[in-house]
Design a protein that fits this description.
With 115 residues, this protein is of the alpha+beta class. The chain is 57% helix and 14% strand. The chain folds into two domains: 42 residues, no CATH class; 71 residues. It is built from two helices and four strands; from the N terminus they run ββββαα. Helix 1 packs antiparallel against helix 2. The two termini are 51 Å apart.
Amino acid sequence: MSSGWEASPSCGSGNCLEIMSQIDGSVLIRDSKDPNGPWLQFTAAEYAAHTDGIKADLQRKNTHQGMHMANLENLLIKLDRRLMDITVLVDEPCRAESDLRFMRTRLRALLGVGT
């Protein structure tokens, strides 16, 4: 028979928060490592505000990360153009193309951007 406490499906190690919904809409939260220990109770509104705040923080983080990645991509495009200009000036297309690939790969690795 289930006790009513539920852990997140992603909880594999057993070190999780467990949640139990009450009939009145309130939510109980406890530490899975101490099932006989204390628990916290939140009203439905408090719990909704908490989860909405987490979702908003994640969305802001993802939006910021997306902007950061776009800026890195723009930087790489500008770098490619500059390296192509150098290739033309140096007039060594074979060597410059391999240098361009090497520099692009190295910069992406340093910045943690996929190739």
